[in-house]
Amino acid sequence: MSKHNAEKRLFPLLITAVNTIFWHPVIFFPFLLTAFIQFFILEILYFSPREPLNVFFGPIISKIWSPEYLHYPLNLILLPKLFQYLQYPVFILLSSYLVSVSIVIIKNINEDKSIHLKPLFKQTFSMYVHIVVSALLSFCLYICLMYFFDMVIARAMEIRSQSGKFFILKRLILEGAPYFYLFFSVLITTLFAYVFPMIAIERKKVFHAIWENLKLLKGSFFFTFFVVLIPSLFIIPILILRTTVSIDGAFPEISVWILVLSICVLLFIDAVVYTALTLFYLMLREKQ
Amino acid sequence: MKKSIILSLIILLFTFVVLSFLSRNGEYAAQRDLWGINLKLKQASKDPNNMPKNVFKEIMDDYDQFMIKHPNSRMRPYAHLISGRVYMLQRKFEQARQEFETILEEYPKETAANIQALAEIGRTYLKEDNGPAIVNTYERILAKYPLTELGLKVPLLRAEFYQRQNDETKTQQSYQNAADHYEEIIKQNPDSLIEYQALKYLGQSSLVLENWEKVVDSYGELLIKYPYPKYLTVYESDKIIKMITTISITKLKKYDPAKMIFLRFIERHPKHPFNETFFEMMKSFEFLKEETKDIE
Question: Could you tell me the pTM of the whole model?
Answer without folding.
Answer: 0.78
